[in-house]
Amino acid sequence: MGKSPRDTPGGERSVGGSERVRELLPYPYVAVRPEGVIDSVNGAWTDLVGLKSSAVEGRRFADLLAAGSAERFEDALEEASAEVAPDSDALETLELDLVREDGVVTPVVLDGRVERTEGGRVHRIHCQLRELESEHDGGAAGAEDPDSDGERVRIRDVLAESEARYRSMAEALDVSGVATFILDDSFSVVWVNEAVEEYFGVTRDRLVGTDKASMIESDIKHIFADPERFAETVLASYEDNSYVESFECHVLPGDGRAERWLFHWSTPIERGRYAGGRIEHYTDVTERHEYAARLESQLEDLDVLNEMVRHDIRNDLQQVLAYADFLADHVDAEGEAHVETILDNAEHAVDLTTTAREMTDVMLTSDEGRREVSLRPALESAVDGVRTVHSDAVVTVEGSVPAVSVEADDLLDSVFRNLLKNAIQHNDQAVPEVAVSARVTEGRVTEGRVVVRVADNGPGVPDDRKEAVFGRGEKGLRSTGTGLGLYLVDTLVDSYGGRVRVEDNDPEGAVFVVELPLAE
After folding, report:
1. Which residues make Cβ contacts (< 8 Å) with residue 35, sequence separation at least 6?
2. How far apart are CA 134 and CA 498, in angstroms?
3. Quick one: 266 exposed, middle or buried, by C-beta within 10 A (0-12, 13-18, 19+)?
4. Residues 6+ apart with CB under 8 A from 378
């Protein structure tokens, strides 16, 4: 996967990895040219020596070593340069005394790897350093001699493994679909991945090493639909780098850049080399936005259908009922049966449109539409309506309905109306009887709730059906309903933060129990 060591431009071997990867390495790193001049260093080097890259690049590495160490390094460099076709690309492991900026001498182990041109000449030497302070201050008794060949091999292997691990991590981040910026404590860009180039249309070479705030003003904010809001929000996190920021932003198409929606999430870096800096992630949420747009369009269509059901279809059905009722006085005995069939089916169709309208209202209503609704008017309205339609049934209210309010909406009365209709339509008695009661609960567990019970004298609900009856499209064997009534009840009660269940009545029938939290 990728290029072989000798496939890089100019025939050079890419042993040390990319600059971005080196910057993420946890150990001090320095690249030295064949003539002994420092080519580059990483942040861990600066932490160890106290000298930034600008202060050491172009200087001889030997000048930063104590006298004896400088000679040993020069000798090793000369020996590596003399070998055109060596058996190994590893530089001799050296124990050196490194002189820090403050003059303190720090013993280190240097493990080097030689990068050669295709012709075998030394192009650069990649050096990894490890402090030996703990060993010079007195290691554990019996510790292996750091000058031994075994220890040198161990150090080299550990460093190689560490480099490989961090390179793998950097490569994984580089191909991640989440665009990532790493900023240092001055909010300069230390590292970005491939997704940044794709999403923002700005190359890494243009970004890395630059002041992020300046880049936002010059190159970045203009790609967004609301550039000033984007700039203001991100720059505020640099001024007060103490909080997590998150927001969505809309990238406009142009200059080879695709239109997309991004979710920005950023947080301060609290430890490590870039402590005081910030890491920013941009996740592509375009598909979610497109889905939301489709859903909004579907809801608009549903709203149109709701209006059609609410007005046009119901008006036509009312006309059918009126004319059928008129015909009842102008037909013979045989015709009366046909008229009765017309009336029954038309009334069923009206019930169906009512339920469909209420189901649509549920789907179009958000939690923001919830408000305080008085229980007593909603329950009494449902009882009066069912008594009018089902004059052959006996519907009673036991006791008084509490004068309390619940968190609901205009569909609260349909909860009770559907339960009453269900109790009558599923009843197998000559005279269906339904008793309604309501009370406010007491006790620490149930306090702050009102319980409404709708009890009937019908066949009851078997235990294995007590949960299933609230499923979409459930009907009893003798039901003339739509199969949506109890599903609508369950959906509405759940949206109000309550619950509904069915119990056995004594001595026969079923009791539907609705619990609703009182309005605060």
Report:
1. none
2. 66
3. buried
4. 408, 412, 413, 416
Which of 438, 434, 411, 431 has the alpha carbon at shortest distance from 423? 434
SS3 state of residue 259 = coil
Distance CA 9, CA 14 (A): 10
Distance CA 172, CA 100 (A): 35
Strand partners, 261: 250
Contact 14, 8 (CB under 8 A): yes
Helix (H) or strand (E) holding 48: helix 43-49
Domain-ending residue, one of 112, 137, 172: 172
> Which position has the token pair 């058996």?
87
What is the distance between the terminal CA atoms of the chain, rounded to a whole angstrom? 64
- Name which of 44, 12, 18 is nearest 30 in CA terms: 44
Selection from 125, 138, 130 nearest residue 158 by Cα: 130
pLDDT digits (tens, 9 = 90+) for 282-330: 999 999 988 888 887 777 777 766 666 666 677 777 788 888 888 888 8
Tens digit of each residue's pLDDT (9 = 90 or more) over 348-389: 677 767 766 676 666 666 566 678 999 999 999 999 999 998
506 in the same domain as 407: yes
Q: The domain that contains 403 carries what CATH number? A: 3.30.565.10
